[in-house]
Structures are given as structure tokens and as C-alpha cells.
# Entry
Amino acid sequence: MAVNTTVHIDERHKIKESHWLTDLIKTILLYIPLIIWTIITCFPFWYMLVVSTRSAGDIFSFPPPLALKPNFIDQFIINYNNLISRTYYWRNLFNSVYISTMTTLLGTFLCSLAGYGFAMYRFKGRNVLFSLMLFTLMVPQTINIIPYFIMMKTFGWISTARAMYLPAAASAFGIFLMRQYIMTSIQQDLVEAARVDGCSEFGIYWRIVLPLITPIIGSYGIITFLNQWNNYMTALVVLKDPKSYTVPLALGSLVGMQSVDYGAIMVGTVISVFPLLIMFIFMSKMIISKVTEGALKE
Amino acid sequence: MSAATVQTKTKHPGSGLAGFQRKIAPYIFISPFYISFLIFSTFPIFFSLYLSFQKWNGIGEMTFVGFNNYIAILKDQLFWKSTLNTFGMLFWTAIPQHFIGMSFAFILNQGLVKFKEFFKGVMFVPYLTSSVAVAIVFSVIYGTQYGFMNYALRFIEPILPIQLPIEWLRGYTTWFTLSSLTTWRWTGWNAIIYLAGLQAISNSLYEAARIDGATWWQIFTKITVPLLKPVIYFATTMTIIGNMQLFDEPMVMIGLQNRAMELRGNMGMSLAVYMYAWGFNWSRFGNACATSYLIFLIIMVLSYINRKLFKEE
# Structure
């Protein structure tokens, strides 16, 4: 046994002092796939930018455009004017921002409040209510599409923002996430102490629990915002008036039209994609860790 | 839960106003959520089930037809075609997504790689981008006459088994084309998830295995894969659920044609698009709801198989 161990220690010693050349080759081999994937990932964004600065004739020419022209800003402005003459683009962008923000605010509030209720109190019907919620967690979103449309029509909510944010706010995933987090991170003693000090029940949630669970609020908030920002299917079903469209819907509706060229559509795509992209560059570390955290909690 | 049990044993709920407040507080806390949850999440599930047994065009009278909608759909050739398409596209994206994603997770977990945060950012960016925007860009890239893809392939034309230009949205090629979009979008996300899983495995386990003289293959199969199984299970489940409901990409890139054309040519019609067509193009809400329940059933079966494969009790 003793002999064995010394042999292995020798081997480990060897591994540590491996030749710099093998290290170099290994490093290069590791970087090649990473760089290829970086190019594959970035290419569509670059192409988006290029196409948005070209005229229709330029886009459908051979060879296809791959670089910016010297006068690219002029053509971008022409395409931009083309876009806003055919869509309510800024209105649509505002709708997207408004709907995503409302979903996030309402969703985090409802889910954290109810998650707190489930995590910190024992009450009649708790298990039944919670199981009911877990059951819907398994049901795919596709099932709700037809009923949403009929309900929104009945309520007279077709083409309104609330048709988008109210259904999305009360999410089973959200309450599940919040309950788990509150159960593991908030001490019951802390709540008791606040109660003894005369804090009201809602006050405990608002002043003590909420500040302590900001990490999970952040995770859930970012996931919700992104999901709603990119939501196409629900929007397609409940938003009928072009003025009420969100950006994905407005862009999608342009694709089928003969009169609108890809340059104009791509301007719309660039305006909606790049701000998010730039924001991401500055906060990538935080956003990645938040989304991963949220996803893996499930 | 255990904390709450202890609490009721040690502290008695107070009497008077505070005690009353404490008793009703949880109901008040959960009611805003539950009211909207019952209206917007629970009710639609049962309403959809109810509608799946009705014949209804959305305006006129509903008539109860029993299982006729389900039978009609199971007899519809287009349903089976959409199912085949959906499975085809799931296969074409699930294998590369997880294989490449896992490989990148291993690469990013190596000490030799610098700029980790940068590459993680690159991996993550497609997840942020709206699927509609991606579909629009790719429909230019995959254009038949002037698309970049066909242009780039000209340089390796002599070694290609097929003739250029390739019609990317025709026949079985459509599966590859649409799958490449979902692969582009989700591979990095899987890599990040797998990386988080890898980093959660304690280094001392590897150390111990190495001291015991395990080869890297033994370490991979005996330590990494078993400990990564919950993460693999989670990521593959997400792929299955997402791809069975694939809608945005085929809808934007191909759209809906009439029934006859769908039957003949389009290999991009997914189950979700098929369901949408029943509801909003052919105005048969009962059939649409029946389709959505069939999708649910398929997801349940696939998840069950997946569970058997990857989940350890």
C-alpha cells in the first residue's frame, strides 16, 4: 500500500511538470471549437446589421452582402423610414417594454407574496392548493392557447396589454421557485422576532422577507422579462390590432408582406435586439448566474 | 415544513387581534395569486379539455361529439405528418444540442482556458434573442438564390453529395434547416447548465479517483456522468418540452399554406402549428383543443421515457 502511494505521488508530480509544448497544443485544441462557436453565434448578428444597411437590390444579389458599405448610414435611414411608414414600430416597442415590465413586476409580487404564505404559514388547505399548482406545472402552454383566445374575446380584452400580462403573471414556476428559496433562506425565528416586536403580517413580508429574497426576485424577474419579451405565440393569438402588436409580432407580420423588403424588417430587428445585447455585455456575469440559478432550482 | 411544525409546538398562536391577523394572513397572501391562477391557468386547462369534446367554430352553437374530434385527428394524415416532422426536428436538434453543449461545458471547465466569462457570454447570447428575430435573419441566410449559405457552400461544391443551390425549406431538408435554428439558440444554454453541474462536483472526488489510479474514462463514466445525471435529466426534459411545442420558427419561416399544399410539400409543419391551424385557420376549436391534449400526451410519454433513462431514484 505504502509503495503504491509513493508511485502515484510520483506520477502526479510528473503530470504537474508536463511539458509546456503539450500544454500549448492542448490549449490550442481547446480554443479552436470555442472560436468556431463564437463565429457561428455572432454571424447572424453581424448579418442582421449588414442587411439592415442595404437596399433590396443589394440584399438579393450575388455574392450576398457581407460587409458594411461606406454610405451604410444613408441606406439604414431609408430602410428605417420604410419600416416606420408601414408599422407602428415605436408604439410596438413601447408595448413590448410595457407588457414585459408589467408581467415582471406583477409576477414577482404575486409569486413572492404567495410563496411566502406557503413557506411560512401552516393553514387549512395548504397542501391541496400547492399540489394543484404543481400539477399545472406539467401542463404545456399549448393547451391554454385556444381558451386564452376565447376568454380574452369574452372579456373584450383582445388587442389590450392586459391580455398579455395578466395571464403570465401568476406562474406556477414562479411560486415554486419563491417558496423553495424562502423555505431555505429565511429563519422562522426572524419572523417570530419581528412579530413579537409588533410588526404586522404584511409588514413582515414587505420589510423583512422581501429585502432578504432579492436574489431570487432577480432570477425570476430576468427569466420572466425575457420570456415575455420574446413571446410570440400568445401575442399572435390575442393581439389583433397592429397598434397593439409587440415587436416580435410586428416583425413576424412583415415577413409575409410582398411590399416590405428585408432591409426594413432588419432595421426593426436591429433596434429590438441590440439594446438588449449591449445591456447584456455589461451585465453578462450577473444575468447568466441568475438565469442558471433560476433554472436549476426547478 | 419542519420549521413550521416546530414553531407551532413551541409558540402558541396569540389570541385577540394579532392572532386573528395571523390566522387569516396566509389566505390573504395567497389569494391574489390564486384568483388569477385559477382564472388564467387552471380554468383554461379544463376548458380546453371540455372543448376537445365539442364541435364548435367559435361563433355558433356547441355540440357534444364525444371522442369524435380525437378520432378525426388520429385519422388525419396531416396530424401524423406533423408528428413525424416534430419528431424529426427534435432528433436533429436534441443530439447536437446536448452533445456539443456538453463538450463545451467540459472545455470551459478546463483550467487552461482563459476568457471564460467572455465565452460564457457568447454561449448565452442566443438565449436572449427573440426567436422571431432569429428566424427572420436565418430566412435570409438560407435563401435559395441569394442566400449566404448556398454562396458559402459553393467553395466546397466538388465534395458535396448534392447539387447547389439547395432549397433549404423543401422536403426533408426543412428538418435540418429549422433544427439548426433551435440548435443555434439552445446549445449554449445547455453548455452553461452543464457547466454549472460540472462545477458543483467536488474536486476532492476527482483527486481521490486519481490517487486510486483511475483513468480519465473511468472518471468520466463512474464519477462525472452519474453525478451529472440530474442536470442531464433537467436539460433533456426542457429540450423535449420545448421542441414538442415548436412554433415560432416554422410559423415565421414557412407560415401556413392551404391543406393540400401542407400535405404535399411542407415538411416544416410542427404539431403546434397544426394545432394553431385548426383553431385559427380552419375555425374548428374542438379539434384544436383535442390536438393540444394529444401534444400533452406525447410530452408525457417522452418525459416518462426520459425519466427512465436519466433519473435515478
Notes: Chain A has 15 helices and no strands. Chain A touches chain B through 106 residues (CB under 8 Å). The longest helix of chain A spans residues 262-297.
